[in-house]
Amino acid sequence: MTHQVHQNAMQQKTTSHRLRELFAEARMPVMAAPMFLVSSPELVVASSRAGIVGTFAAPNARNVEALDDALSSISTGVAQGGTAPWALNMIVHSSYDRFDAELELVLRYQPKIVTTALGSPRRVLEHVHGYGGFVMADVATPGMARKAVDAGVDGLILVCAGAGGHTGTYHPFSFIDEVRQFWNGPIGLAGAISTGAHVRAAQQIGADFAVLGTRFIAAEESMAPAAYRDMLVKSSMEDLVASKAVSGVLANWLRPTLDRAGLSDTEVSEKKQIDFSGDISTAPKAWKDVWSAGHGVGAVTAVEPLSAIVSRLAQEFSGSLAAEGEAIKRLGTQLETWEAAHVPGMVSQGAAQ
Fold it and tell me: Which residues, at least 6 apart from 64, have a Cβ–Cβ distance to it below 8 Å?
């Protein structure tokens, strides 16, 4: 191994440790997902104050000037009472017109974490690393994950089957297992994670933290219209349809809004060319009229403050840890008893003493 390769490996190890610490020091290992036309500056600040990482989706601002205002509001709000860092999500697809202008704002406000979607994270790495920030990439396949790792990301967010918005198609068990064969850095898991027990389960199968989106759409601080929130409360996973018809990228949609937009079953099944040029928030059949949700939509039962949602998640997470401790003791005793009775030469630890 050359000196430079060794130095790069050591730097990656140090960066991974620091990024993991951000989530370990939070109230719980949770990131609020960057939801298009849902995540507001208020939602991001509320997330930080509740003890989880909040993420703002840059395209939620109608123009660069509005994004400047939004990032200023988030930066100030988190500085005045936040307990967890905040993140900015950027579209890095080549068709996205605002990339250069948004990058200038990133350098000005220096979010601790930048997450990238729909393209290579390489476009932002040098800039974010320059001020000491971290870059994580949303990936939906092992191939995408490998490319992001090769580009030099600090962390991966695996978008699995059941995610709201732009979704994946792979089961989290197998997805994490394949990625862990070539990546030992931080991993976030996204897709139908809705309870504190789900967050702990994500850790148990190899993730460092969980990314929750749908669970926060109906929060009082979100940008979601009242009708959207009410529809979520009344919906179940059977009300969702996976389609590329809206943005050209596979996403889960609430069927009533597809019907209202005049998208037939034929159009829903057809592919659309990926195009993020222009004002994507006001394009025909845009997301402001066609609403998305993930498979965890059934867990949304009320419109309430984000702080209340996070407190419930924290209680569930703690309860899961407590139950896990008791289960480990019980199952350990059962295993020793079974092996002593059925495996030749095995003596239980208690009998040996």
Answer: 98, 101, 102, 105
147, 122 Cβ separation under 8 angstroms = no
Q: Structural domain of residue 324, as residue ranges?
A: 320-352
Residue 44 placed within a domain: yes
75: alpha, beta or left, given left = phi > 0 and alpha = psi -120 to 50? alpha
- Residue 275 within any structural domain of the chain: no
Tokens at 3, concatenated: 């000196």
Judge whether 268 lies within some domain: no
Taking each helix axis from N to C end, the angle separating 41-50 and 306-342, rounded to the nearest 10 degrees, works out to 50
* HEC readout, 192-204: CCCCHHHHHHHHH
CA distance 85 to 141: 27
| 58-106 tens-digit pLDDT | 999 999 999 999 999 999 999 999 999 999 999 998 888 999 999 999 9
The total domain count for the chain is 2
In a shared domain, residues 185 and 334 = no
Q: Looking at 92-201, which runs of residues are DSSP E strands?
A: 113-117, 134-139, 155-159, 165-166, 187-190
